[in-house]
Design brief:
The complex is a heterodimer of chains A (427) and B (313). Chain A is α/β, with parallel strands linked by helices and 427 residues long. Chain A is built from 18 helices and 13 strands. Chain B has 313 residues and is mainly α. The chains are: A alpha/beta (427), B mainly alpha (313). Chain A: This is ABC transporter substrate-binding protein.
Chain lengths: 427, 313
Amino acid sequence: MTNELARRTVLLGGIAGLSLTASACSVTGGGKSKGGSGSGKGTISALFMKQAGYSEADIHGMIASFESKHPDIKVKPTFVAYEALHDKVVTAAPAGTYDVELIDVIWPAEFASGGLVTDITSKMPEDWHTRMLGGALNTAEYQDKYYGVPWGPSTKLFYYNTAMLQKIGASKADLDTWDHVLAVSRKLKSHGVCKYPIAWSWAQAEALICDYAQLLGAFGGSFLDSAGKLHLDSDAGVKTLTWMCQTLKDGLTNPGSTTFLEDDVSKSMAQGQTAFSLNWDSTYRDLNDRSISKVVGKNGVMATPKGPSGKQPGVNGAMALSIAKSSKNQDAAWKFIEYVTGEAIQERYIKSSASNWKASYDKPKVIATNKPVFDAYKVALRETILRPAVPGYNKISQGLQVEIQKALLGKKTPSKALRDAQAASNT
Amino acid sequence: MMRPGRTQEFPQGLAVRPKKSNGQGKMAFWLLLPALVAVFGIVIYPVVRTLVISLFEVNSVMATDTPFVGLGNYEKVLSDAGFWAAIGRTFYFTVTSTVLELVLGLALAGLLNARIRGRWVLRTIVVIPWAVPTIVNAALWKGIFNAQYGALNGILSQLGFQSDYRAWLGSPTAAMNAVIVADVWKTTPLVAFFLLAGLASIPNDIYEAAKLDRASRVRTFFSVTLPLLVPSVSIVLVLRTVEAFKVFDIIYGMTRGGPANGTQTIAYYAYTSAFSDQSYGMGSAISYLIVIVILLLSAVYLRALRRSEMSLL
């Protein structure tokens, strides 16, 4: 009996010891996953998202173009939904599965401090600082270092169904403020033109925070106080959330919005079931695509309407291409990033995403390819609202998503929900 | 007296082991080696590694600075209201889905066991939901429940049962029930086939005896069929409870834990902590707490079922 017990103890101890040895005495094993410059040739793996911005076909086109210019480098792309992108980057990090990774503007602090992405400050040419839009360049900046190259500045624009507006004798000029949008929505509803005129992406996801941020900016608020500390339960925040809840109560917002992501909102607009929505810049391309839209030529785009504060900032929703710290072929990865973020490529695919480069905005030929979006951008990018650039952003955002949803579903008052979100962010 | 089907127990030290020559022992070792390597690599190593990680504060998958916190992560988790809320939701999901699957599975098994023409076609069709991958099943039901273009809203409106489209996944309770419906749709066929095997093993002469005794159909079901199905039911109960308690993929595909965390089960909570928040220590601690709950549940079941003479366990 004692022998048996001793044998089991030794076995368990041995397994525990082996487990630690196998992870090179590090709890995570992350320390040994060191990347390298590589030969600058060979095959690289790249992780992209399959959602807003550049489409899968766009990216395949860019890769084909890159490979024809660099025949000694092959690019193997992987596409995931935006909602899976963060976790995919995290879980792939120790194994070094991807060389190039698309990251959101809200993740550089977390990924840089966690050692998941490479500092590329020294690789960036000096003239990029003057040739690139200031707001774009900072997309993947953390503590004065750059961890990625922006792949198009992006913000949510306001889309409207022109055919529906015509039916009640309204026009774009009537949509300059959120109050006016609600007035037009009431008219659309009372005339039976549209049952729920506005659709939002208010599912429990980052999409909700993007919509909330844009409205928060219009109400004159911010996620941070004057001292730069997180301040989720500000007066402007409570007013914003109260306004959101009211549009649901009044039946102006589609009740399905609490389950919608941007894609659902875009589909609802494309099916002619929604009059107004906020969505990313590539939505204009999709609404005018005959294969997926019933409202081709019947929609307009403009910067987000003004709020009570008179402001109309767009939420900064830019993405960036980073090099994974565990990549063994970082030089080849950089060549690819440099190519696809270049002025020529960005202008070629301007209908899917805006350009990083100042010069693009002075080229009539480029502007003419997507003029309505360019016009909206001119206003929307005058001022932007940022989500907090802190390492624990994901957790803060998730807490805020849950609390905002509780208010939207009538489980809590807006002030209590935001107070609880603030309290949760402090733990 | 020895129970049928059980092996004879030898007194301590008297167990008889077949003698093997040295050559046979070596051969056995080499044959077992691939299986041992696989078991170590995909079961033992991750299990022990997770236990080790749960004792450290790990805030990034690539972290090198990971202070030892002992049971600190467990204390933190157990004092977190979110953990207990997730446990509550998981119990609701587990109990409701398991009961529904058992009841519906039993009815379906009865139907599949009936002597009807084309029975094999019916059996083939019934197994289809089980053959659908869970993540596909989740996407399917997400589409069916969609507030704007879902089939359920379309059918109910066409039939005049509702005038307005409903957001079936729009409130925490409705969303949880919708997830349960999707899970029941997928898993009931498995339960039915387990019970069908049980039904097929019941000797026909018992039913004939019941008939001679003029027992009604209901009486026959409760006095003959159900007691003799206890072994199959017990297996299904243990399997489904454990599986349902670990539910993750259908939640990930349908609701991602929303709305307002209304469908966040304990496994999803562990996933969010580990991968979205990158709190690997916390995520590992939650995983171990899930294991403890499942072990406790299994122990309670096994104890209860061992008392039953009809149980196979």
